[in-house]
Structure formats: C-alpha cells, structure tokens
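Here we describe the complex-level prediction in full. Unlike the single-chain runs in Section 2.1, the two entities below were treated as one system.
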Amino acid sequence: MIKRIDGGVCAAKGFLASGVHCGVRKKRTKKDIAMIYSECRATAAAVYTTNLVKGAPLLVTKKHIADGYAQAVICNSGNANTCNADGVEVAEKMSAMAAEALGIRADDVVVASTGVIGQPLPLAPIAEGIPMLVKALSREGGTDAAEGIMTTDVVKKEIAVEFTLGGKTCRMGGIAKGSGMIHPNMATMLVFMTTDAAISAEMLRKALTTDIKKTFNMISIDGDTSTNDMVTVLANGMAGNAEITEEGEDFDTFMKALNTLNVYLCRAIAGDGEGATKLLECKVTGAKDEACAKTVAKSVICSSLLKAAMFGADANWGRVLCAIGYSGADLDVNTVDVSFRSAKGDILVCQNGAGVPFSEEKAKEILLEKEIEILVSLGNGTGEATAFGCDLTYDYVKINGDYRT
Amino acid sequence: MIKRIDGGVCAAKGFLASGVHCGVRKKRTKKDIAMIYSECRATAAAVYTTNLVKGAPLLVTKKHIADGYAQAVICNSGNANTCNADGVEVAEKMSAMAAEALGIRADDVVVASTGVIGQPLPLAPIAEGIPMLVKALSREGGTDAAEGIMTTDVVKKEIAVEFTLGGKTCRMGGIAKGSGMIHPNMATMLVFMTTDAAISAEMLRKALTTDIKKTFNMISIDGDTSTNDMVTVLANGMAGNAEITEEGEDFDTFMKALNTLNVYLCRAIAGDGEGATKLLECKVTGAKDEACAKTVAKSVICSSLLKAAMFGADANWGRVLCAIGYSGADLDVNTVDVSFRSAKGDILVCQNGAGVPFSEEKAKEILLEKEIEILVSLGNGTGEATAFGCDLTYDYVKINGDYRT
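The structure predicted for the assembly as a whole is:
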C-alpha cells in the first residue's frame, strides 16, 4: 500500500532542505541554488547521462558516491558548468564548500548544475549562497529546494509517499527539474529523491537502475539528451526498518514506492516540457517483446509532426502510423490499431493498419484535453511499454530561440 | 564540366511534362497532379522509403520498374494514398489510366502520391486530370509539373545541367518536393529526374543508390521518415552517347552531373522545410571515418534545440556539443572545434571541447543570414560529411498543428 503524503524531499525522517537566490541568475526573484541534507550518512545511488559530453558536476558526483554513501546534495540552476576548462575544479570547490559548511565529509556531497552550457560558473555567488542554504535548512524546505533547481520549468515538481516495511512506516520523497533538452538515456534530467527506509547501497542501486528503464528513460521532450542528466536517491535508514539487503517482499514494496514517485515525476516533467500545453502518453501493447514496445512508444512520442498535431488537437493518426513504421521495431503494420483517449473518452481511428471512419467532432473533444493517451496495439505479442512526452508549440520555439539572451 | 541550364525536367531530349488542377485538392488555384513523359522507353531506377508503412504507389512503382524500364511518371499531391485498404488497387488504376491515355505499356508508369495519410484517394478527379495532363504535355511543362507535386512547399524546386559524354552533349534535369516529414533513409521525399544520356539500367541504379547516401539521405527537416519517399530517374538515351555499361570516365561524369542536381535539390528541400527561415548545413571534418562524420552531422542537424537557436540567430554552441555528444559516434569530445559560417564571415566558438571568447555581435551578424554553415572539426581522422536541414520556427508548429483542416 503506497500512500501519497505531503512534504516532498523532506517527508522522510532526518531530511532537511532549502533553496535560495545566490546570484548565479541575475533575476533576484528566482531561486538558483538548493540543498538537501540528511542528519546521518545515507546509502546513495545515481544514474547519469549517456551523452559523451558530460557536465563536470556529474564526474565529481560519480567519484563521491562510488563508495555507495552520501549525506547532502548541492545544486545550482542557471549554469550547467559543462564544456568549461575549469569545470571539474569548480564542481569540486562547490562540493567542498558545502561539506565544510555542513561539517560532513567532502566526498559525501552530491553536486549538480543545470542551465546554459559553456559559460564558466562563477564561484563567488555559490560561496555566498552556501551559508544561506545551511541556515535555511528545515523540514519545510522541500518546496524551496524544488524551486532552486528549476530552469525553464513552469511548474515545481515534488512528491512524497508513505509505505510500510516490516511494520515500520517509511517515507520517500523526490523533486525534479526537466523542461528542455530532455530525452534521457540510461539517466535523465535532475531528480533528487530521499527515503528514510534502510536499504543497502547495492540494493538501492539495483532498485534505481531497474526502475528508470521504465520511467525516466521513457520520457522525451525534444529528442535532445542533455549533458547533465542525473537521478539520485539517498536512503538514510532512519525509519528503523530491517535493512533491505536482498530481493524479497520488502524490496518489492520499496520498488513500488520508487515507481510511484518516478511515474509521478515523469508525468510532471513531460507535462511541463518547454512550451508544452499537453501531457502525451503513448501506451503500446501487443508488441513482440518489451524492447519492441519501448522502441515504438518512444518513436511515436518523439515525432515532431505528431507533437504539433496534438498541439492543434488534430486526430492525424497517419503520423502515429508513420512513426511506428520508421521506429525500427520488428512488427507487422497490418495488425496495428490506434486510439486516442482522454478524460472525455476514447476513439478508435485506425484498425489493422488502415483508417476507420470516426467522428472528427468527438476526436477534437478528446484531444482538447490537457492529458492525452495515444494507445497503440501491435497485435503481435504481449510486450508493453509507456512513453511520456508533450506537444510541440510556438512557445517551445520561442523559449529556445533566445534562451541565452 | 557540368553546366547549369534551364528547362528542369524537360531539359533532356525527348522529355515532356505537364501539371494541372484536377480536384484532389479543393483549392482550384493549386495544381495537384503532374506528368512526365519520355518519347521513348527509358532505363529507370528508384529508391524508396525504409518506413515499414509504405505508400501504396511505391509498391506499384517498385513492381513496374523491376525490369529496369519506364516511360512516364504520374504523381498527385494532396493525398498520399497510404494506409488505405484499397490503396494498391487505386494506384494500379491511376497508373493504368495514364498508360492508356499515353498509349504506352501499363508497367512503364511510375506512380506516386503525396499529402495526407489515411484518407481514400478518389479516382474521379484523377480520371478527369489525366486527359488534361496528356493534352498539356510540352517541352515547357517542367515548371507546371514541379508545381503539381508541391504540398506545403513554398518554393518550386527544379534544376537542369548539361555535360558531355564521348563528345555528345547530354542533359539531366530534376524536380522535387519536400517540406515536412522529411528525414530520408535509403530513399527520400519525391524527386523525379530525367536525362537523355544512354546508361544501362544496372549502372543507373548504381549511380542513384551511391549518390543518395551523400545527398538525400543526409537531409532532415523534422526527423520524421515519410511513408512515401521516392527518388526516381529516367534515362532515355536520346543524347546519342555510347551507352554507359560499366564504371569509367563516362560513369564518373554522369555521377558528377547527378550529384550536382542532387545537392541543389537537397539544399532547396532543406531551405524550404516546413516553416523554415534558414538553410542549415552541418559540415563535419576530421572524423574517424565517413560513417562517424555522417552520424555527427545528422545528429547536429536534427537537434530541435539547435534548430530553434538558429531561428533566433543565437550562437548557442553548447547545443552543438550536446548533439555531438549524444550522436552515438565514436569520438573524443576534447578535440572538437565548432565554428559558424555564412556570407558575413565565420567565427570560432568552441575549441578542444570548451568555449572560447567570441564577439556576440559578430556571431549575431553571421547567424542572421539565410544560409548558415555549422562547421564541426573532430580532430580524429579524415572522415567528412555534410547534412542538410533548416531552423525550427513558429510556422513549423502552425503548419503541422492543423495540416488536415
């Protein structure tokens, strides 16, 4: 039983957080740095972008949590600290300053940056911000931290859940930032999760790497895999449950809680894609296998043409067929069915690879909703997958036509 | 010596063409059907989309030119005749009607359709249009044919060249339509070429399949590989040169002429991408090999983020690095240089994988031009490639938000 609760990244026992404006961004009204702190050392796991160009903070974080432990997260927005000659040095300094201010080990800090690529990240505002962050740390600071990591995000993304392991109440919370340059592969945008469940570093890593394949790696806003994607989870064990050290009932419950968090954050990230007006979910069933289902779902969700059609609430299912056809997946186009579904109902538009008569009026009504499901049945097996995305709008172009200025 | 001449698809001896409005499209001012006719049978070659969903006309054309010969082309716009239960039957009828009206063999007709997917193509307007097309056939009809195959294209695309084979003057011309759903693989949008050079069917096929790998397969407007892409060439031998039946000097000259045509048409298609305001060319040098160069060039030209930045004339080179990094090509990001170039000059923005100081003012001046080159040097070998694309604009979204309505 996974129950939604309030509190975001501070819902789990022993976690404090904060977010402030330190000056990386010029705009004083926008928070640009965030901190998460656990009262004791936590087991930690992370997954990173597969882009060959990797943000300097990722390299530093990878080194820091190689031992499976961490105690704090420091993350700025407004500058990605990527493709800078002094990037690693700056990330190390940022991390060391946070460790010193918190009185923890230097290699127990997860460091992250998000924003523009290729502009040196100045340390002065960070040095000013860290004492402010430490002072502001509180059980109520989760929302501030969620704000501190936002770039072009419009909506804050946070969630928390409660679940039981061996009679002990555990909590798990997460914050995320997404928006543009989102097409994760192996890792994804910035997501920080906390839990008070006790779980070994090894099992935490296993849980995270297993779950992201069905969640964050199935999002695409624009097909661009960022250089700074990272998902991390800290587990401090303060719930007092018997530590999870192997697969079994407790691990399954933990996985369910993690998946609840991640699906929520995925939908939040996709629905708040740059310029997006709609959340799109492509649900593929009847595939030869899961890999095939994933390939098809991602191909559909990535189609610029389909994304633009969804923006226009146009039931242009030919574009769904087209994207299925070029996906590269092994399938028979003559057994493909396509429907659109939303809160207003569902409508079959294509059967056995050919169009069927349908009410354009009804289709329009369905597609004018804010959350649209594109249902694809391949009639070819039992493989299933869901991909998350958003529509392509004027605002995506506007936001990215002058992001730096 | 390849010389540009006028006449498009009718520049070569013995070719006539026409284009009229027959009623597939409602708008009477837009031509919607085109014909090309050779006074004698011609050797023919074609390449087709790799999309598993293939337009019915492609299946019929493939059958018709399996013997290496064709004599006429019939192509309508406004309806792709794809994903329709009766598609093949309709394409066969369309082809048979054209053959009968021209008095040629039924299997010597290349048939093509372009437009919306999944709406039955009515034969009545086609039946009405064919006699009009035959009547209108002329040496001056190339431009009308170029217009007849346009969908959301803004600009007509036609070209012709003259060259010499064994002392005989030969000509080659082509027309194309592109615009949206353009991300060819193995074949591409619609391109029809004609030549009066004598060349065997086998060598014609070889010439075409070799050249498209460097030309049409290197274009991307929006990453969507259409269901109806096709490039065809008819060679009727009326120039009187000794038939090309093997590799050698004549074949090389023929290849040069073909490449001149194709590069021109590629640039025309990319620059007239849906909603485009700019032609983008990504020129990659110093790659480990050609395959690697192609992968990088295509990844850069496909990046929605970079395309939007180019629309805004923003020298956001971090997005170039990002697209290079996720391309999947084998390379060292620490030896990558990036420059932007246009008629206003060029500017180095990234060296050895990190930013270099540059004049934003100068960069803006360069990027405000209509034709932009993105120069990527990988410092890793001698492989080279060029990819063709366009910027991502409000109008792309507008055009595709309500294409069917």
